[in-house]
Design a protein that fits this description.
Structural class: mainly alpha
Shape: elongated
CATH architecture of the largest domain: Alpha Horseshoe
Number of strands: 0
Largest sheet: none
Order of helices and strands: HHHHHHHHH
Number of domains: 2
CATH superfamily of the largest domain: Tetratricopeptide repeat domain
Distance between the termini: 71 Å
CATH class of the largest domain: Mainly Alpha
Length: 177
């Protein structure tokens, strides 16, 4: 009986140790999540990249990596990271959508500023605003690749800047979708 109790205690102890070590995130992930909270996007991206290489199943780390990459202008990489977060957990779909909304709305604000500047005949300010809008719309289209509205406003921005070839390429892509 004593041997059976000792065996059960040992089994429970080993089980608890196994659960503890399997539940722990890599140190890089922990460092990356802290940097994310502090809005240190470069450090967060660097550390979270290392962390997800070690633990590919951490949906929160993938989301934070995608967000950090978006803030750094690494839009294609962000799209992949966000997709990984969504595959691992449905909990991140709304957060990713909110990120898209933030970038899309920021793009609209700059687009509107560009059209107002054109109305004042201020082409320098207009082009600066349209370029910034294009950057935000590029972020939005990489976060949610099927966002037709972001593509259209990006193409419209190119049109207002007189870059018709770039605009036509995007408009054609919209038709393909």
């Amino acid at each position: 009986m004593k041997l059976l109790k000792s065996f059960l205690v040992l089994a429970v102890l080993l089980g608890a140790i196994s659960i503890y070590f399997n539940a722990c995130s890599p140190a890089e992930t922990t460092t990356g999540k802290l940097a994310y909270q502090q809005k240190d996007w470069e450090k967060a991206e660097k550390e979270l990249s290392k962390g997800v290489a070690l633990d590919k199943g951490d949906a929160e780390a993938w989301y934070m990596l995608g967000y950090s990459q978006t803030e750094l202008g690494k839009y294609k990489e962000a799209g992949v990271s966000f997709e990984n977060a969504k595959k691992l957990s449905g909990d991140y779909g709304n957060l990713i959508k909110n990120c898209w909304i933030d970038k899309f709305n920021a793009g609209i604000m700059d687009f509107n500023a560009g059209t107002k500047a054109l109305g004042r005949k201020d082409s320098i300010s207009a082009n600066k605003s349209f370029n910034t809008a294009i950057n935000y719309f590029t972020a939005a289209t990489n976060i949610i690749p099927d966002s037709i509205a972001a593509y259209q406003l990006m193409a419209d921005s190119y049109t207002y800047m007189g870059q018709t070839d770039a605009a036509l390429k995007i408009y054609s892509g919209i038709l393909d979708k």
